[in-house]
Amino acid sequence: MAAALELFSKHDAEDVSIDDVATAAGASRALVYHYFGGKQELYVAALRSAAEELQDRLRPVNGGTAIEGLAAGLTRYFDFVEDHAAGFAALLRGGPANRAGEVGEIVEGVRRRLFKMIMNQMQVSEPTPVLRTTLRSWIASVETAGLDWLESRDIERPTLERLLVDQMVALLGVASRHDGLAGGSLPELGRGPGELG
């Protein structure tokens, strides 16, 4: 599974063969087929494994302010990015052809978990359209930041995590100008609208 994730993180799934995975894993082609049936099944199993571990790390932890909870969740997210770079990259780098069906559901499942974690921290049960759009935009930024950090590693992780938390607060400040209900989330995050600068 680790060998498959490593290969899928660097190449399009279409360009990786069962032979490539078997060679990288030091296993026989027949053994890989025996356990996974084929390349698509192996690809899905590898991504699901990475996604399940990431989702486990995103389980809410009680205690502290909402912003502390958000920061702690982001740290757990980047722990996964750092510990399982290949799995994270494979999860997010699948080509457009891989975004449909099972693979798309796996990726969206991780996004839903992160979205739910944020909503829990804000103590919001049903987001307004503006808040929903804002949070989904931030999640896309977190994913992009994770991939960029893996490629460059030219920013300290704690600095990146603080930057992303500050971006969330700033985005909520903008959202509050378009939707007063979205602005109500700011105090829950530990800062008022006048404390963004």
Described by strand count, sense and barrel closure, the largest sheet is: none
* Number of discrete domains: 1
- Per DSSP E runs of 2 or more residues, the count of β-strands stands at 0
User: What is the annotated CATH architecture?
Assistant: Orthogonal Bundle
Radius of gyration: 19 Å
The average pLDDT value, as a whole number, equals 83
CATH class: Mainly Alpha
Task: Give the overall form.
Answer: elongated
| CATH topology title | Tetracycline Repressor, domain 2
Number of helices: 11
Q: How much strand content do the residues show? A: under 5%
Find the CATH superfamily: Tetracycline Repressor, domain 2
Helix/strand-derived category reads mainly alpha
